Amino acid sequence: MKEQKEVLLSVQHLKKYFHVGKNAILKAVDDVSFDIYKGETLGMVGESGCGKTACGRTCIGLYDRTDGKVLYKGQDVHALDPKEKRSFKKEVQMVFQDPYNSLDPRMTVAEIIGEGIDIHHLAKTKQERQDIIYKYLELVGLNREHANRFVHEFSGGQRQRIGIARALAVQPEFIVLDEPISALDVSIQAQIVNLLVDLQKKMGLTYLFVAHDLSMVKHISDRVAVLYLGTLVELTTSAKLYDNPLHPYTQALLSAIPIPDPEIEKERDENKIRLEGEVPSPINTKPGCRFRGRCKYAMPVCEQEMPPLTEIGEGHYVACHRCVQGNDGK
Q1: Contacts of 269 (CB under 8 A, 6+ apart)
Q2: Are 258 and 272 in contact (CB under 8 A)?
Q3: Is the Cα torsion angle 167, 223, 12, 55 positive or negative in sign?
Q4: CB-count exposure of residue 53 (10 Å: 0-12, 13-18, 19+)
Q5: Beta strands of 38-65 (E only): which ranges?
């Protein structure tokens, strides 16, 4: 019998549109559905501007939805009363992309980490508050001596550790990691990813890991969702996605991952999938598949209908008319 996984966050037909001018609507997230299971990491990947960050922020209520639902433990995130919202904000946290702009330069590290502790009344005394701050500093690989320093005294990697400690200090269950390593040196990126993996095991955390570096996503994610211009085009386990990508866009993304061996990379360069055509605008989008203008397999139906996200194999979903028709034997 298959083990039934507990759904922590359920995203149902989510839409997030921005009005960017007279009669101009930017469809950042357009009819996206997926579940995140308790204890897992769902990676969300795609090119810059595909809607990853907007999706993550709408999922935790930082942006209001345009349509659809986001259910956290069965409760609608966008319809919580003030008391429920306070509890939700404790259970759900975010680590931001830029550690240079997401931390207040006027506050000490202790004040930054202690802010959430104070808001949610997690410490009864000053000593208990200080002990909690020290605990989370050490948990992310920093020292208690760092508590009274200001953020400008730290490197990018250390600042991101402070951001992670701030998120952890309120004892959340679910964390949205919005490209947490993209602003860091390559040498530091693996350290932060390994830290996140260790923290997840120790604390039973659930992650939505937003990124565009597919090699890092493979390392940390249980499942991967691929976004293209605000739509979900493929969703499956990390192993299936990397071994058998079905959507032409996913195939192109994976073929672009560099291999750190010049000889292999040179041979591989000849077989790389190079996308032709320009990325269409997400403003006032036309009907049909968003990817059709860059897809060598595009068919007449691709211009008329948006392909639905369809399960092709067990747990492997793809939004592509060609894949679905091929699977039906047509």
Answers
A1: none
A2: no
A3: positive
A4: buried
A5: 41-45
> What is the spatial distance between Cα 223 and Cα 43, in angstroms, rounded to a whole number?
6
pTM over 0.85: yes
Q: Do 58 and 16 contact (CB within 8 A), yes or no?
A: yes
- Tens of pLDDT, residue by residue over 201-249, are 999 999 999 998 788 888 899 999 999 999 999 999 999 999 999 999 9
Q: Which residues contact 248 (CB under 8 A, 6 or more apart)?
A: 273, 291, 295, 296, 297, 320, 322
Q: What is the pLDDT of residues 135-170, one digit of tens each?
A: 999 999 999 999 999 999 999 899 999 999 999 999
Q: Indicate if the pLDDT at residue 330 is higher than 50.
A: no
Measured distance CA(64)–CA(57) in Å, rounded: 9
Q: Distance between the two ends of the chain, CA-based, in angstroms?
A: 33
3-state SS of 71-130? EECCEEHHHCCHHHHHHHHHHEEEECCCCCCCCCCCCEHHHHHHHHHHHCCCCCCHHHHH
Q: Residue 329 has what pLDDT?
A: 37
d(CA 61, CA 75): 12
